[in-house]
């Protein structure tokens, strides 16, 4: 998997750079330079920087430098039936019920290996019975402290890291999942602010535990709407699609979703807080599912290129350049 990804990434970077530079010509300033400015703003701790980054992205889109930002052609907004989704080859009952069998299996393997190791050490007389009991008690104590102090962050870090070693497809699945969130948000006009693909990566960079893979967005306006209790339909539509993009990605690529249960639950809670009836909530979710699946099917190539860039550790602006490069010259965004 790694050698093929490396070859694809090299070709993608060249195509993206060329296409993005061409698009930037309409603004009179090299897009690479403006994107470096965007990266600087997105990485800044200044509370005003997020708003400035959003304004810069909107300016570049208006100038034609960012042709794909907020330009997605969406399916008509109306109530869709389950039958209509199935006619579009979508199985919502599978898509909306993720089950994390990979990490559950990894956790079981680690626990089993630990117990086997202790048993082998005992029978090989490396440790005696009292030492064996002490090791078990210490292990249980460490796990308990981790649950209390870090909400299980250390255990999650170990399991996530082991998952990438034990399961060769796990890392790629996570990258595609997060790229689905990133790409959908970008096409709908919600600027990504950052991302992480592994617990270990974030721990090394920021010494933070209990943070799994995820994307962050410039969503000050959305949060203000939520706080005021006046959420616009446009904001809700964008949030719904971005929230479901991860599970939609996994269902499209692997036939079932493993990650993203929290995303589905957050959307359910939001719709409940807005006092949507069950029928209205179902209609919102079904439209969002159809919309995001349509976008991801249409832009599969850009999605793959973005996931590869994220696995390389590309910055947000570099990821944007990849998207723009892949969609350069396309009239159907």
From TrEMBL:
Amino acid composition bias (Low complexity), ranges on this chain? 10-28
Q: Name one GO biological process term.
A: proteolysis
Q: Which GO terms describe its molecular function?
A: ATP binding; ATP-dependent peptidase activity; metalloendopeptidase activity
In residue numbers, the region (Disordered) covers: 1-31
The source's domain of life comes to Eukaryota
Entries under InterPro entries matching the protein:
Peptidase_M41-like
Protein name, per record: Stress regulated isoform 3
């Amino acid at each position: 998997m790694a050698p093929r990804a490396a070859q694809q990434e090299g070709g993608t970077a060249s195509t993206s750079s060329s296409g993005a530079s061409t698009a930037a010509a309409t603004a009179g300033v090299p897009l690479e330079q403006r994107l470096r400015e965007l990266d600087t703003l997105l990485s800044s701790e200044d509370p005003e920087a997020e708003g400035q980054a959003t304004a810069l992205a909107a300016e570049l889109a208006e100038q034609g430098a960012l042709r794909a930002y907020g330009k997605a052609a969406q399916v008509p907004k109306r109530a869709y039936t389950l039958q209509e989704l199935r006619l579009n080859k979508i199985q919502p009952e599978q898509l909306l019920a993720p089950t994390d069998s990979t990490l559950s299996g990894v956790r079981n393997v680690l626990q089993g290996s630990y117990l086997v190791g202790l048993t082998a050490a005992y029978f090989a007389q490396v440790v005696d019975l009292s030492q064996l009991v002490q090791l078990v008690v210490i292990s249980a104590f460490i796990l308990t402290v981790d649950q209390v102090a870090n909400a299980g962050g250390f255990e999650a870090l170990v399991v996530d890291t082991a998952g990438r070693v034990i399961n060769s497809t796990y890392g790629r699945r996570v990258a595609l999942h997060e790229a689905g969130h990133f790409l959908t948000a970008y096409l709908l006009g919600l600027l990504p602010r950052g991302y992480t693909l592994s617990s270990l990566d974030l721990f090394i960079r920021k010494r933070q535990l209990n943070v799994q893979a995820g994307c962050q967005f410039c969503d000050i306006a959305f949060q203000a709407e939520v706080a005021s209790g006046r959420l616009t339909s446009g904001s809700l539509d964008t949030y719904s699609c971005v929230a479901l993009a991860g599970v939609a990605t996994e269902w499209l690529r692997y036939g079932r979703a493993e990650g993203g249960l929290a995303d589905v639950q957050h959307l359910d809670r939001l719709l409940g807080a807005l006092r949507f009836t069950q029928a209205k909530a179902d209609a919102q979710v079904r439209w969002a599912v159809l919309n995001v699946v349509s976008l991801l099917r249409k832009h599969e190539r850009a999605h793959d290129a973005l996931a590869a860039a994220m696995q390389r550790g590309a910055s947000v602006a570099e990821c944007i350049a990849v998207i723009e490069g892949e969609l350069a010259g396309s009239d159907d965004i």
